[in-house]
Amino acid sequence: MRLVVVGAAGRMGRMLIKAIAATEGCTLSAAIERPGSNALRQDSGVLAGLPANGILVSDDALAAFVEAEGVLDFTAPEATVAFAGLAAQARIVHVVGTTGMEPSHLARLEAAARHAAIIRSGNMSLGVNLLAGLVRKVAATLGTDWDIEIVEMHHRMKVDAPSGTAVMLGEAAAQGRTVELAQHRVASRDGQVGARPPGAIGFAALRGGTVVGDHKVVFAGQGERLELNHIAEDRSLFAQGAVRAALWGRGRKPGLYAMTDVLGLDNL
Q1: Under the phi-then-psi rule, with left for phi > 0, alpha for psi from -120 to 50, and beta for the rest, what region is 218?
Q2: Half-sphere exposure of residue 63, counting CA atoms within 13 Å on the CB side?
Q3: I need a labelling partner for 238 at 20 to 30 A (CA). Which of 23, 174, 213, 232 fits?
Q4: By three-state DSSP, how is residue 55 classified?
């Protein structure tokens, strides 16, 4: 499967190039960066810390997509929706790990998914997707008598908060309670905020050091507390999951898919 990596010079872009090189059944077709990037015309293999592969970093995404079967995208919301339009034109699989998306971005992804298979997830790891399934079940079982708080920590360079994974876990909790997350989300507390609203799903975001990603979902009841945790120790697991998603999406009908589809976790 011929795959394009967009945002090739970024931390995740380089990881994706390595993951493709290490995975049977796929090959790097092109590496894309924004116009003006210092990485343009560099060998993408060398950029990723591998031997030279002869694929130079380019800023011509459309030309790259036409020659490919899939694109791996961990960029930024505006870039992702632009790439989604191009992927839809080329009818190729679009794997989206971009976080920080607003409803307007998601609407544009849904529109593009009418013409191409888009696989989107706030986290591509098996462990986190299992965690989300457990959170959904526990939230449905315990009900609103138990308070839900989601705590996440990432490295100091992360630009969005709460993390896409934390939001994914919040959505799972809301689904378990059969409510909309937007109506129950509490993302910050400062000063005299009053008592905790019944049914609230709270978020706390910590930033520092080089933390890859820690997530904890706390269910706090009367006199007891249940905590579900996931700790990511190696960023490469997200890249491996993205490549797995692309291979799964090959030949799929147009539509918007999730990692639960890829991993066969729909029954959780």
Answers
A1: beta
A2: 7
A3: 174
A4: coil
In 3D space, the residue among 60, 55, 61 whose CA is nearest the CA of residue 80 turns out to be 61
Burial (CB count within 10 angstroms: exposed 0-12, middle 13-18, buried 19+), residue 63: middle
Is 184 catalytic? The answer is no
What is the spatial distance between Cα 223 and Cα 212, in angstroms, rounded to a whole number?
Answer: 32
Q: Which of 154, 184, 215, 230 is catalytic?
A: 154
CA distance 173 to 181: 8
**Does the pLDDT of residue 264 top 90, yes or no?**
no
Buried (b) or exposed (e) across 83-112, using 16+ Cβ within 10 A? bbbbbbebebbbbbbbbbbeeebeebbeeb
- Bridge partners (DSSP) of residue 154 are 207
pLDDT category of residue 99 using cuts at 50, 70 and 90: confident
- Listing DSSP states for 204-249 in one string gives EEEE-TT--EEEEEEEE-SS-EEEEEEEE--THHHHHHHHHHHHHH
How do 2-6 and 27-32 pair as beta strands?
parallel
Kindly report the number of other CB atoms within 10 A of residue 133's CB atom: 18
Q: Which residues contact 189 (CB under 8 A, 6 or more apart)?
A: 202
**pTM of structure:** 0.82
Residues in CB range of 39: below 8 A, 6 or more apart = 8, 9, 33, 47, 57
| The pair of three-digit structure tokens given for residue 35, joined into one six-digit string | 């116009």
Alpha-carbon distance of 254 to 263, in angstroms, equals 18
Q: Which of 115-119, 156-160, 251-255 has the lowest mean pLDDT?
A: 156-160
Q: Is the peptide bond before 162 cis (omega within 30 degrees of 0)?
A: yes
Q: Using an 8 Å Cβ cutoff, are 125 and 237 in contact?
A: yes
Does the active-site annotation cover 216? no
